[in-house]
Write a structure and sequence with these properties.
The protein has about 220 residues and is mainly beta. It folds into two domains: about 100 residues, no CATH class; about 100 residues, Immunoglobulin-like (Sandwich), CATH 2.60.40. The protein is about 10% helix and about 35% strand. A four-stranded antiparallel β-sheet has the order 1-2-3-4, with helices on one face. Strands 5-7-14-10 form a four-stranded mixed β-sheet, with no helix packed on it.
């Protein structure tokens, strides 16, 4: 577990973390930052030393400010508030959420949108891990289909694409949509008019890419 800002150099982070581990039993053991590695002299992280507080078993700044309530532990940590990690997180066990409302998903910035032109058979490109596709309003006869490819560089072989009609149906359930032929860099979308009459709908299709592997 690292407490140090990713803005510091790799050598500085390693040295400081080693010092914290060595002095965590010493409540007065100060850990100083190397001034050559300080990008912002006004930032609390760079202007104060770290003190290991044995009362609460975590690091604090020398002015008494808590270090975001992150405990130094090799086995378990409790995070309060939103934590931002600039690198990837690899869990050797599982990543779960017990929130009845939040869940696990993508945050703002991960998604995107694209609008289909010409017809419901025109391919689109959207290089995002999730997003929405607005289809052309081409008239589909009863039982008719639209068939097109979404080129997406985030999709890899083994991934799964969840797709649903978000809006645009004249009547709920009148049109279905599914993703198939998921492969490296693309997946196919098939839209079907499930009614016996013609429909000229501008549909909004939502999709999410779930990363998967076969080994």
């Amino acid at each position: 577990m690292r407490l140090l800002s990713p803005d510091l150099s790799q050598d500085a982070r390693r040295d400081i973390e080693a010092a914290i581990r060595e002095r965590r039993d010493n409540p007065l053991g100060l850990v100083e930052y190397a001034t050559a590695d300080l990008p912002d002299a006004t930032d609390l992280r760079y202007t104060h030393s770290l003190v290991w507080d044995t009362t609460v078993n975590r690091a604090k700044f020398s002015n008494g400010t808590d270090w975001n309530t992150i405990a130094l532990s090799d086995t378990a940590n409790t995070f309060t508030g939103t934590q931002t990690f600039l690198g990837a997180i690899l869990g050797k066990s599982s990543i779960k959420s017990d929130s009845p409302t939040a869940g696990i998903g993508y945050a703002t910035g991960a998604g995107g949108t694209v609008t289909q032109i010409t017809s419901k058979n025109t391919n689109v490109t959207l290089d995002k891990i999730c997003g929405q596709i607005t289809t052309h309003n081409q008239n589909l006869a009863g039982g008719g289909t639209g068939n097109f490819v979404c080129f997406n560089s985030t999709v890899a072989l083994g991934d799964q694409v969840l797709l649903a009609v978000v809006s645009g149906e004249v009547t709920g359930g009148a049109t279905s949509a599914r993703a198939c032929n998921v492969g490296a860099g693309a997946f196919r979308i098939i839209i079907k008019n499930e009614t016996g009459g013609a429909l000229a709908e501008t549909l909004v299709l939502g999709f999410v890419v779930i990363k998967g592997v076969t080994s």
